[in-house]
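Hey Z.,

So I finally got round to the adenosine-3',5'-cyclic-monophosphate thing we talked about over coffee. Here's the setup:
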Amino acid sequence: MALERTFCIVKPDAVEANKAGHILAHLEAKGFTLVAFKKTTLSRATAEGFYAVHKERPFFGELVEFMTRGPVVIAVLEKDNAVADYRAAMGATNPANAEEGTLRKLYAKSIGENAVHGSDSLDNARIEIAWFFAGSEVTAL
Ligand code: CMP
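And the result:
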């Protein structure tokens, strides 16, 4: 298996609930290394750009409102098979369908306020990491 990096957002609902540290600790316990992380508040332009692929979806406005309503914690996670393993650790997008022990089962309230984001492919992980972290903030893989 190859060493990979993926991109994580601890969303405003989980940060408001003081669960950001729990979520990062949960991921470290599963073998992910925190290459970089920071707390930030997304501007409307940043959230709209990040989620541009969902622009035509009926929930887009709600998604942007939610993602900009308070701070998020963003992180670069590294591990063998990081993209798939982090998606497994997150659980299904809708927490009602998430498996026991997954982050969304533990911390998410709804499909909209679902605690965490993770890249859905290695290509998107590279794009998302570069969208949020300067080269100087991320050591070479
Ligand atoms: P995320 O993995 O960050 O990628 C897109 C986000 O859109 C998703 O998590 C959800 O938070 C949100 N989303 C997806 N489907 C819906 C929906 N039906 N209603 C509201 N938000 C949604």
